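Sanity check record (used in CI):
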Amino acid sequence: MFVNTNTSALNAINQLNTNANRLEKSYEALSSGKRINSAADDAAGLQISVRLTAQSNALTRIEQNINDGISYAQVAEGALAEVSNMAQRMYQLAIQAANGSLTTTDKQALDVEFQGLKQEINRIANETEIFGRFPLLGGDNVPSLGDIFPISGGSGTFSSGIRSFAAIPAGSNNISLTLDSLGLDDDIQIFTQDGRHLVGTDLNDNSWQNNADNIPISTPQDVENNLFTPPNGFPPGASYDASNLNSGGPVYSPSAANSTSYNGMTISFGGDGDRTSPADGNNDGVNTGGTLIEAVHIDTTTEPLYVAVVGSGSFDLTVNYSNLGNTVNNDEPFKVFVATTPDGNNDDFIDIEKTASSSVDLGIAPLTIASASGAQTAISALQNALNTIAGYRSEYGASINVLSSAARTSMNSHENIVAATSRIQDTDYASETAKLAREQVLQQASQSILSQANIQPELALSLLNQ
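Expected output for Flagellin:
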């Protein structure tokens, strides 16, 4: 029996601390609902649960991606359903107009509705939008300046008209365009994608009103209807604005002389090399040996620009540049990302292709039923258009079915991964409450034993008192 060292008490204290630590872990597990609250609880289990949690979070986002894709396809297919209804009505009107019992006046009356339906098809194609995308608009048909001139200093002869000739990508530097109208009246025009007229002649100029396409242009509405179209690179809603127009200044110069600035771009233009602009009497061209030169220089492009050359003939164009920026493909499909572990291949995405459905894309833009021959032509064209629309709707239906299947697969995987994570990470309350009861009993027992162990030195003192 010892007085200085009470090993029994030390042992009881050790057991009491151990039981207290275990009791603390039980409290933590029961209050948090998690079996693993720190790496010390289960190092390997923590690593696995973190990986499974990340995969679960990814699947949650993928399910939303898929739902977005389904919404995109449903909006497009719904709009096409209405386009199909209008094309059916146009088909019916064409068959009616082809009948010999109708007079010319009757056919013209039918054509009024026919043309109105065609315009409504264009409106639906231009305004059907979801997530900032326009599924019924095709990509533009405008080549990049680098596609036409892959090497700086290149030149060529081209035809003018009411259309975008080339796109200058954002991020291009030190671009020079030198145009020779070859003795005719052709003028270079440059626009931003939202319709701001930066370089060229005002709408009163002869080159706008007497052009090779025989489409007189004299008002902003004329520009918006005939040039500012998706095939020419302009989005729906592009609005003509000439407030920043550089028309070359009061004195014509065969070099890029008059400078203006817009959105971080410095643009120099020499003026209309062909003739006087009636609006202001400026930019008189000087015909020297039949050569009429217009020159434009842009230091850098901070946004995409579109070049048109309007006029009545052909022109020579020479292009120089330091570098051209990257072009953007406006015809890309809507990509639904569905991969939790992407490998960089196409199977990371489910693509929903665009379905260009304007009257031009459907081949019905020039149709009229004001005459019997026109009505017969319209019947054949509308049959083809209806087949095209039906094919587009089938594609969207197939995409919806594929995405719905992908959603079910993702949700099933998500459910199983969450269950696996729960088995590793979450508290088993039946087991943990049993442990808690055990530790509470052991703690009380340890406290009792410690009290008894502390009495032992007093027994030694009782021997001295005898």
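The chain has three domains: 7-54+427-464, 59-132+349-413, 145-320. If this sentence no longer matches the regenerated tokens, the check is flagged for review.
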